[in-house]
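tool_log.txt
---
The assistant was asked to compare two proteins side by side. It first ran the structure predictor on the initial sequence, then on the second. Raw inputs and outputs are pasted verbatim so the downstream comparison step can read them without reformatting.
(1)
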Amino acid sequence: MVDVNSVRWMIAGSVLLLLGVLFPLLMVLRVVEPSFLLSFLSFAASMGGLLVGMVGVVTHTTRGRGPY
């Protein structure tokens, strides 16, 4: 059975990773004016998305297993 909570973690991580790629792309294309704050937020979104997504994957794969 699929744990809905772990799927939500994975979706949230995917969205954060997508934002972490989209913000620098928009800055390079000069759609959004580049700034240090936006660069830092895109890096934080990318790292946070990686962490949140990995938590979702680990909880999804270890659900239903015993203590060993």
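(2)
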Amino acid sequence: MDGTDQQRLKTRGTVLPRIAQVFGMSPDAFLEAVIAGKDAPAPLTATVQASALLSDFMRITDPDVRERCLEYVREAAAREAGRAA
């Protein structure tokens, strides 16, 4: 993404500042984290990963495969919850 693209994103209404505020960042820092793909806050990284997961999941047409994927994610989440307790 070049400087022109970055500027276009920065000036696109109030959406970017709102999103950055949710993550406790300035719009510039938020944009740099997204572009660089590093130093992004954990919630932002998780949101990007969740979006990718959902996009890939929707491409699976076999209901049994989708159910196995969903069960795997549920089990992984339960294991994480058990570690946190």
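---
observation on (2): The radius of gyration is 17 Å. The chain has two domains: 3-40, 43-84.
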